[in-house]
Amino acid sequence: MVRRAGRSVMAIAVGSAALLLASAVQAVASPKDHMVQNTGIVMTLPTGPITYFDISWVDQSTGQYFLADDSNNAVDWFDATTDSFARFLAKGQFAGTGIAACYAFTPDPYGCAGPTGVVTDNLGRVWAGDSPTTTDPQSSVVMINTATAPYAFTRINTGGHARSDELSFDPADHMILIANPDDGFLTWISTTTLSVVGKFYYSGNADGVTPTLLNHPAPQGFEQSSYDPKTGLFYQAVPGVGIDVFKPVPAGGVGQLVTTFRTPSSLASFCPSGPAGLAIGPRQTLIGTCDNGGIVVNVRNGRTQTVIPNVGGSDEVWFNPGDGNIYFAQAGGASPALAVAGGHNDHFLQSLPTGTGAHSVAAYSGNNQIFVPVTGVGVLVFQSSGH
Fold this sequence. Notes:
Blueprint: H1 5-23, E1 36-43, E2 53-59, E3 64-69, E4 74-79, E5 84-89, H2 100-103, E6 118-120, E7 126-130, E8 140-144, E9 153-157, E10 167-170, E11 175-180, E12 185-190, E13 195-201, E14 225-228, E15 233-238, E16 242-246, E17 257-261, E18 278-281, E19 285-289, E20 294-298, E21 304-308, E22 314-320, E23 325-330, E24 337-342, E25 347-353, E26 362-364, E27 369-374, E28 378-384
């Protein structure tokens, strides 16, 4: 994530020039393209401006938007159908900005925050990664049941010394995949039994555990993972390695690596510290965020199909099937922006200014609104012409 200096300083620095160019460029739209505008609506919290946050998520089945909010030690719940704040979830139960014992383990200034990544499952329950807290010395994932108030939560330990971060959900096998970037391992959790069912340890992991595969390269942290229902596989963004592809269910408690989509040698200077954000796009593609643009990869064979210009320095990326657009949250440089690409042909469309720390983006296909939280302001609401 771009806000995490320990992993993405290069992405911010290298992407700055491309971002400044993007803010001044708008492509010529085709009849299939849907342009975007700022509605002027800002969703705010009753406690004041949002100051320190991470990844966001929209549950498409319910039209609810969730933001991992470290500054309030909570998941912020907004209604994406009315552009309004609903409530805080598990407020005061997360790590917040972190504790000293955790920072003693990792040099990453953001390695002990919580909540971090956020996603919902097929029952509408909210899952969020967390760091060690004053009452729990291990990293964990928190499940919040939103079916009935008071929205009870369950904490499932993942066994790391620093944060459990970004995560994704497989509705077919009822499985969560979550990454511990500073510890160097992945964890599979059953949403049925609410228990850990598998691990995959990388070379050089900070816990000193024998790597699951001795010849697999060491990562430079982990970023977003995605599950593709068409292939039935998890795709994990691994900076410095590429995209690791896993079977959805571990065997004997061990994550099953299928293959690795490596960045082509011709693009080695293009995406040396990525990909960061990762999303399942249209036409069986993966869309990743790199230093100087967006990389579009064939989901079945890992071949790079194209590179989207003017979207470099982005963190979270989101494909919205409602309007067919791909949205990139550009947080680096002097001009943070929401970059937009047309998903039907993977070409850059436009760039709209956002604000400080705007590294998170999510869209609701029901009304084709796009949500971008900004430090010290709130959640900006954009509208696609696809509505």
